[in-house]
Amino acid sequence: MSPKSRLYTLVKAWKNKPFQEVRDACGQPWLGLNSEALKEHQSWSQRQTIGHEPIFNTQGTKLTSSLFRPLLTASDSQVLRLFMEGLDTISYWYRSGRFIPGILPLPEHVFESNDFIDGLSDLILNSRLPVGLISLGVHQLEKPHLSTDGKNGLLRMRRLGVLIHMLNYSGTLSQMRWAEEIQPEGIHLDITQFRTSTAPAEIFSHGKRFKSQIYASNITLVKDIENAIAIGAQHCYGGLMMPSVSRHQILHINDSRIAKAIFSLHPHQNLNGDK
């Protein structure tokens, strides 16, 4: 049989196969001829929202986690829905063969509400994700101390194997009290505040005492990366490293090419990369 006749046979067999719906990575149909399929397609499209900010090691050679930004501005009525979307994304990465931890930001008052904690607990348990893949980023720390209800809420989360991060940390006295009470696994510093001043020594002592990983956020200048290294940060993220992407694009990230290029040009920490 000639190559041409074999090709004809294959095409004919493919043409005569019964139609099968195209499905996304979650196994749900999204392309079809009825309204239900159209709704599924819209749902699939919504899950491609550009809201996942990649986090790298300070050398930019490894993707270490991702911050789910839509939760940073979520209203109380949106928290559980967006939290479920964040969990679904982490599960999507896990089923696709990538062990990518996700940081899901939540405001302080959420941990003081039994209703919120009950809802979050149910969602986490139903996700059946391995321990270490889910981190909660506490932000909007407006009170000088963590309330008893807040402590109980965080304790319930920790019992589920969830890691706790403190976002927007600047080393103020009230934030240090929070760090003492929370003992977070991750401390996120806005690196832009250290362009004209040095980081407080207490930040390093807190990190060592609680064995916290230090995250440098808002990396937008080469100088920010140098400062992140100077303060001993293990992780970096921001527009210079890589802007926010969709959950599908996260799967194809192995490193921050911009950061790697910067380090190849400026191998010494004392060089001023902005000149």
Shape descriptor: globular
Strand and helix order: HEEHEEHEHEHEHEHEHEHH
Q: Oligomerization state of this entry? A: single chain
| Total of domains | 1
The helix fraction, in percent, is 40-55%
The CATH architecture is Alpha-Beta Barrel
User: So how many helices?
Assistant: 10
CATH uppermost class: Alpha Beta
Overview of the structural elements:
- With 275 residues, the protein is α/β, with parallel strands linked by helices.
- Helix content is 40%, strand content 17%.
- The protein has an eight-stranded mixed β-barrel.
- The protein is globular.
- This is Diguanylate phosphodiesterase.
Please describe the topology of this protein.
Layout: H1 3-15, E1 22-23, E2 29-31, H2 35-46, E3 52-57, E4 63-68, H3 79-95, E5 102-107, H4 114-127, E6 134-139, H5 148-159, E7 163-169, H6 173-182, E8 186-190, H7 201-210, E9 213-217, H8 222-230, E10 235-236, H9 247-250, H10 257-265
Parallel strand pairs: 4-5, 5-6, 6-7, 7-8, 8-9, 9-10
Antiparallel strand pairs: 1-2, 3-4, 3-10
Helix pairs in contact: 3-4, 4-5
Keywords, separated by commas or semicolons:
TIM Barrel; 10 strands; 275 residues; 8-stranded mixed β-barrel; alpha/beta; 17% strand; 10 helices; two-stranded antiparallel ribbon; single chain
Overview in brief:
This is Diguanylate phosphodiesterase. This protein is α/β, with parallel strands linked by helices.
